[in-house]
Design goal:
By secondary structure, the chain is of the alpha/beta class. The chain folds into 2 domains: 244 residues, Thiolase/Chalcone synthase (Peroxisomal Thiolase, Chain A, domain 1, 3-Layer(aba) Sandwich); 155 residues, 3-Layer(aba) Sandwich (Peroxisomal Thiolase, Chain A, domain 1), CATH 3.40.47. The chain contains 13 helices and 14 strands. The chain has a 10-stranded mixed β-sheet with strand order 5-4-6-7-1-8-14-13-9-10, sandwiched between helices. It is globular and about 65 Å long.
């Protein structure tokens, strides 16, 4: 079977929109979370989020076409353009014909869903825009990227809550492993920092209400955590077969060596006790990568800053990695402390961070971990980044409905 490598990364997050910005910000321990600017949230119980700042879609999309794009699609276009530039690829006709686009999206165009619902209610059905559906449906991030870049391979969306883009990466990698295509674009996009999104998650009491201290609100594994911080953004990764990448002399960040996916089959929002579904996903990914637990150097955890989720994931990691984790030889961090939770885009963003950790030999910290909760005894890399030789890294993504995904990235000799 073909080996799959990562040869391009594009990130548009609350921590930066230009190439390299997100990585530098994370290593420096800077937070991208602040008071919501995109709409008036003053009457909401939650007024904070991780927004992509100073984003100008007109840099990527013609003004006359903008009405076709939900914000999630705009962010995906920006991340995909950056990924292509980073990959250094010179497209051949064959590459464009075979390259697919898999973009995981959890919720799609919430801002237009709300806007046009109001239009329907107040002005009637004839006033609903013909661009309503294209701006809302989740698969249009992948569709718009394919149209923008002229990519004619398979194009679709995985929608599995907060594991959406991790599943997109796993599926795209499998397409290459099976020899169906030597090249795929895969990632995720999300833009739910809207009135409807914030109100909905607030109603579930899922969000932190630490409104007076936005930068300290996302606190993975900290005893004072009280919910996640909603965030937006996008990530796109260029995946290629190793032979295709080497033939064109591509820079290689790492190999997507393992992938696991399971379901808790337990509860719509709560993780299964002991994180048993998460354990099985991680173990499946390790088997696919042909790795023993002690060979993994770093885990970018799902850890969203929720009371139940963080504990169960910590238990699951401790169970899967055993003495390797208990002896603090395994570094574990959650970059959601700096960015918030990008929902459907989180898995792709965090897999990209794993690839960058291997490429640069450094691990970003967990911010705001001042007082680790009882039972959270792993090495969570609090406050400050670390340098080290990272050979194998794992990214975890879990979502509502009990869906779980784990992706392993490994170093490759160029």
């Amino acid at each position: 079977m073909e080996r799959v490598v990562i040869t391009g990364i594009g990130l548009v997050t609350p921590c930066g929109t230009e190439p390299g910005d997100t990585w530098k910000s994370l290593l420096a321990g800077k937070s991208g979370i602040g008071t919501i600017q995109g709409f008036d949230a003053s009457e909401f119980p939650v007024t904070i989020a991780g927004e992509v700042k100073d984003f100008d879609p007109l840099k990527f999309i013609e003004k006359k076409k903008l009405k076709e794009f939900g914000r999630y699609s705009q962010l995906s276009i920006a991340a995909s353009r950056a990924c292509i530039d980073d990959s250094g690829i010179e497209w051949t006709d064959e590459d464009r014909e075979l390259c697919g686009t898999y973009v995981g999206v959890g919720l799609g165009g919430l801002e237009f869903l709300f806007k046009h619902s109001v239009t329907l209610e107040k002005r009637g059905p004839r006033k609903v825009s013909p661009y309503f559906i294209p701006s809302v449906i989740a698969n249009l991030a992948a569709g718009q990227v394919a149209i923008d870049l002229g990519l004619q391979g398979p194009s679709y969306c995985t929608t599995s809550a907060c594991a959406s883009s991790a599943h997109a990466l796993g599926d795209a990698a499998d397409w290459i492993r099976l020899g169906r295509s030597p090249i795929m674009l895969a990632g995720g996009a999300e833009a739910t920092v809207t009135g409807l999104g914030i109100a909905g998650f607030s109603a579930m009491f899922a969000l932190s209400r630490r409104n007076d201290e936005p930068e300290k609100a996302s606190r993975p594994w900290d005893a004072g955590r009280n919910g996640f911080v909603c965030a937006e953004g996008a990530a796109t990764l260029m995946l290629e077969s190793l032979s295709h990448a080497r033939a064109r002399g591509a820079k290689i960040y790492g190999e997507l060596s393992g992938y696991g996916a399971t379901c808790d089959a337990y509860h719509i929002t709560k993780p299964a006790p002991g994180g048993v579904g998460a354990c099985r996903a991680m173990q499946m990914a390790l088997r696919a990568a042909k790795l023993n637990p002690e060979q993994v150097d770093y885990v970018n955890a799902h850890a969203t800053s929720t009371p139940a989720g963080d504990i169960e994931e910590a238990r699951a990691i401790a169970k899967v990695f055993g003495d390797h984790a208990a002896s603090h030889k395994l570094w574990v961090s959650s970059t959601k402390g700096a960015m918030g939770h990008l929902l459907g885009a989180a898995g792709a963003v965090e897999t990209a961070i794993c690839a960058l950790a291997i490429h640069h030999g450094a691990v970003p910290p967990t911010l705001n971990l001042d007082d680790p909760d009882h039972g959270c005894t792993l090495d969570f890399v609090p406050h400050e980044s670390r340098e080290g030789d990272i050979q194998h890294a794992m990214s975890n993504s879990f979502g509502f409905g009990g869906t779980n995904a784990a992706v392993v990235v490994s170093s490759v000799e160029n």
